[in-house]
Each structure stands twice: as structure tokens, then as C-alpha cells.
Amino acid sequence: MQALASGLDRDRFEPFVFSFADGPRRRQLSASGVQVSIGKDLLRCLERLRPHVVHLHRAGWPEPGLLRPLRLTRVPVVVETNVFGRRDPSPQAQIIDRHLFVSHFCASRYAAVEGIDTSGPRYGVLYNPVDTDCYESNTPAQPWGQPIFGRISRADPGKWSHLALDILPLLKRQIPNFIFRVIGGIPEAHEFVRAHGLDEQVQWLDPVESDLELADFYGSVCLLAHANDTGESFGLTIAEAMASGLPVVTHPAAGLRDNAQLELVEHGKTGFVAGTAEEYAEAVARLLMNPDEARAMGQRGRDKARRLFRKQTIVFQVENIYLELLEAKHGPEAVSGLRRDEVQHVER
């Protein structure tokens, strides 16, 4: 949401972001010149702004309290980024003109589970935007040839898999001097490291917020070790690591859980997909001990990220969606008659 709102063409759009809760993104949005409102009364905000387009960012499941204000204020166009690929069968959801999934995986699962053809005009896939130019320009040269790898997430147990820990004793047998740099360590991870005598191998790092800080982290390691039992509906950390030139090791999630990480990471090309701790540890060891292969995989990942996730490309696509829907619903004058198209982004 932040990248889309801040990247819109200001000669054609006037972005405004509303959120029910405050956080670090507000400061970053304000710094980019985007107006931000934090509060509980979305209806009053919509009545004041009268936007031409509202773009919702939400999980996808029913939220009548969110959609009712949009219906009451008769917003001309409503676009939804369906972050987790869930369905809202409520009558209120009929006001949504375009459902955008953040991966082809989410669109395919939605179609299979709900029996809905997501190739229709109300649906589409729009990857999350990544500032690939920033990562290419600001990521330091990775320490290829040194046994250093990393992982990054929120310090939330729901973002972890025990696989990220089980590989460490196995890896120590092959590469005793490896360094594992971790942002977002949880208490269980700290305890595992202490219990297995891995304090010299694991470095716990503070959280970061900006793309520049992230670029510094991605430049300090030779691969990203992604492990999350709930999986990824897109996998922003993976996409950022790819944009920084890193190979990625990941694993499948079970059942109908999110598996877009397998859409981003192409096994044997931009990284490895491992099913067990033994396979995962072997993949990490292989990349650490073969820097030329790791560098080549990282470059293929960077090329893919530039091709599919580049912020400027994604923003241009979403701008066209806004204008296409405005014209389709309200005629050419709805677009040509506007000096500035005001777009409201709502974050859930």
C-alpha cells in the first residue's frame, strides 16, 4: 500500500491514506508527500474527501464495518487488494469492482476452493510492488565465499517454522564457522540457540524499517533462509532479497496454506525448495560452499524481481486499472474531465 500510494503520478492522482491504527508507515508516507488520516470514523473521512477511487488493502474475508461507509458514500470505483486470497460472500462485497490477488497462487486457490472463475473481468493478479531500483543501487556487495546467511521477519511466532532452527545443528557439522544473522528472533528461537550451543553462530539483529536498512542487511549475507509454516500469499521479504541479488532457500507449506513462496523461488534457478531439515541444511551448505553458483542464482532472482515486481511497473498497472474502471462505469468524461483523480487507499 505504501509503495502504491507514494508512487502514483501526482499530475493525475492525489493519494490519501486512511488507517484505523497508527504505525511506522505513517511517517514514511508523510515523508513522501502522501496525506494520512488515522482514526475510527472512515465514513466521516469519505464524506469529507469524496474520492473517485477507493483502494482497499485487506485479508479478503467479510468486513461489513469497512464496506458499509463506502456504500453509503457511493464511492464511484472500489478496488480491493486481497492480501490473503480469502472470499467475502456478503452482499456488501458487491460494491467491489476489481479484486486483485497478490500472487497467481492466491488466485488459483481462490478459484479452486470457491468455484469462481478468477479469469473474469472482476478479478486480476497484481504483484506487490518492490523498489527494485533502490535495492540494486544500494545493496552492498555480498560477502560471497564467506559462510554467512540470514533470515528476516517480524518477531512473531506465526512467521516462523521450526525448520529454521532444526537446520542449524545439521549445518554446524558441515560448516562449523557459519554465521546466521537473524532479524525478528522469537523467545523459542533464542532458547533453541542457547540449548544447542549455537551462540557463536547466531547473531540477533534489531528490527529495520526502511528500504535502505533492508538493503544493508541483504548485502551482509550470501543467501536468505526463508522458513514460515503458514507460508506466503506473496512473500515480500523473498522478493526484496531477490531484488538485492540473493538466492533464497524456502520450503512448501502444508495443505491449503499459502504457498506463493514456491511461485517466487524457482527450485534450482533462483534458489532451492526443501521439504525436510536435512534437505534444507544441504541446500544452505551447497550455496555457502559454492559462491559462484549462489551468485548466479542471485542474479537470476534479481532479473526476475526487476521483471515482475518493479515498483514503477506495478504502479503504472494500478493507475490504468483505476482509469479503466472509472471510464467503464461512468464514461470517458469521468477520466478526461478530471484534472486530478483522487485516490483513497485504506489499509487494514
Automatic annotation (TrEMBL):
Gene3D superfamilies to which the protein is assigned, alphabetical: Glycogen Phosphorylase B
Protein's UniProt keywords contain Repressor: no
UniProt entry keywords in alphabetical sequence: Transferase
InterPro entries: Glyco_trans_1, Glycosyltransferase_grp1
Domain of life: Bacteria
Domain Glycosyl transferase family: 145-303
Gene Ontology MF, one: hexosyltransferase activity
Protein name per Swiss-Prot or TrEMBL: Glycosyl transferase group 1
Organism: Desulfocurvibacter africanus subsp. africanus str. Walvis Bay
Upper taxonomic lineage: Bacteria, Pseudomonadati, Thermodesulfobacteriota, Desulfovibrionia, Desulfovibrionales
